[in-house]
Structure formats: structure tokens, C-alpha cells
Amino acid sequence: MHRRKKFNESSEQGDEKEWMNTYADMMSLLLTFFVLMFSMATLDTNKFESIISSFQGYIGILDSGKTTNTELSQLVSQGSLNKNISNKKEDVELLKLYTEIKDYLKKNNMENNVNVELNERGLLIRFKDTVLFDTGSADIKPESLNTLTKFAQILKDAKRPIIVEGHTDNVPISNSTYKSNWELSTTRAVNVVKYFIDIQKMNPELLSAAGYGEYHPVAPNDSDANRSKNRRVDIVILKNTNDNS
């Protein structure tokens, strides 16, 4: 009788371990699923934070049974969740930048003039039409300097490659300063980069400028409204350090 009791106790302990292993595997798979969804698409920040919060206190990664956002970032970046999911630390960093910029735009009523989104390249900040420059000019508008200063302060901490891209519509430029849309778009991008480097003391090794003229439109150049969408300056904080185009 004594031996049978020991055997039963051993069996019960084994069953309990198997149950805990199955539970842990299921939680890991669920968390991996949500992280994978985040990596594949542009997310609504509030929804993502809600997902993370819902897991806190339920996944027993820590002794206390809680996993903070910082620790989640570390787990993802270390590949602890899934060997097929890598380099997700930068996604979490870009999400934090996205949230900070989004809050700034909302507080300053700038959401109609500046867009911010996460995409496959990284974090895109899009200045619409004449936010930074007057029509046909590459001189930064004085009233826009405070905005660029704020963005410089935010982006300094990113410590990742940033490319400033100038774009125009397809209407040929006609002034004595710029002979083509190529020159106008390139000079605009260069002037933003120069402001970041010369005035805001950002790291020049992480900054680059590109002018695309009319050749990277986001809408057909078939109406005034669409041409206005194509006249823009994009600042892209790159996800992949090898992507500088």
C-alpha cells in the first residue's frame, strides 16, 4: 500500500507538469501571434497597447506573474518567443516614437497638416504641401522652425538612420532659382537636413537627403487636390539600417 501511494503521487506530479507545460506553450503561441501581427501591419497604437496590457498579469514569465512592456521588448528582441521572429526590438522602439509624435500632433492641432504612420520601411512623418515651404521655394518657413525643432528633439534619441525626401507634383516649375522639380525637391530635403545638423546638432552620419521630383506620387496628378497631396516632404526613420533609399 505504501509503494502504491508513492507511485500515485509521482503520477499526479507528472500530470501537473504536463498541464503547466501545455498552458505555457499556449500562452507563448498566443503572444507570438500578436507580435507577428504587429510586425506585419501598421497598427493603431491604442489597440496594440491594449493587447499588451491584456497579457500583463496572465503570462507567468516573471515570478510575480507579470510582464512589462520593456521586458516584452527584450524577450522579442532576444528571440525568446519564436526563432522565426527576429529584430522586433526596433518595432517596439518605432512604436514608442510613433506614439510620442502622434501625441504632439494632437496637442498642437497639426494632424491635418502632418501625417505619421508605421510602414514596411519604418516610421514615416509626412509634411503636407506648404507646411514647411512656400510654393516654388526651398527656404524653410520661419513659422515651421518650432515644429522642426520639436521633431529634431524627438528623433535625436532614435539613433537610427533618417532620410528626408522631397516630392513635387508634375507641374513644371517656372522661376529663375530652380530649373526643374528635381532641383526644387532635392534642395528642400537638403535644407531640412542642414537645419537638423547645423542648428539642432543631430548626428550627420545618420542623416541623408533625397529629391524625387514628381516621380514618386501618392495620388494621380489629375486634380488640384491630388497634386496638393503629391507636394510633400517625408521624413523616414528607417527600420532596416541597410535601407537608405
Helices and strands, with pairings:
Elements: H1 2-40, H2 45-55, H3 69-77, H4 89-107, E1 114-118, E2 122-128, H5 145-156, E3 162-167, H6 181-199, E4 207-211, H7 224-230, E5 232-238
Parallel strand pairs: 3-4
Antiparallel strand pairs: 1-2, 2-5, 3-5
Which descriptors apply to this entry?
single chain, 12% strand, 245 residues, alpha+beta, 5-stranded mixed beta sheet, elongated, 60s Ribosomal Protein L30, Chain: A, 2 domains
Describe what you observe in this structure.
It is a single chain. The protein is of the alpha+beta class. It folds into two domains: 2-86, no CATH class; 90-238, OmpA-like domain (60s Ribosomal Protein L30, Chain: A). It has seven helices and five strands. Strands 1-2-5-3-4 form a five-stranded mixed beta sheet. The radius of gyration is 25 Å and the shape is elongated. The relative contact order is 0.11.
Question: Summed up, what is this model?
Answer:
The chain is of the alpha+beta class and 245 residues long. The chain has helices at 2-40, 45-55, 69-77, 89-107, 145-156, 181-199, 224-230; strands at 114-118, 122-128, 162-167, 207-211, 232-238.
Distance between the termini: 76 Å
Number of strands: 5
The Rg value, from CA coordinates, equals 25 Å
User: What would the principal axes of the Cα set say about the shape?
Assistant: elongated
Low-confidence stretches: 54-86
Total helical elements: 7
Per the CATH scheme, the topology name of the largest domain is 60s Ribosomal Protein L30, Chain: A
Query: In total, how many domains does the architecture comprise?
Result: 2
- State the name of the first-level CATH class of the largest domain: Alpha Beta
- What is the topology, as strand order, of the major beta sheet? 1-2-5-3-4
Helix content class: 40-55%
Structural class: alpha+beta
The profile of the biggest β sheet is: 5 strands, mixed
Amount of beta strand: 5-15%
CATH superfamily of the largest domain: OmpA-like domain
Mean pLDDT: 79
Order of helices and strands: HHHHEEHEHEHE
The CATH architecture of the largest domain: 2-Layer Sandwich
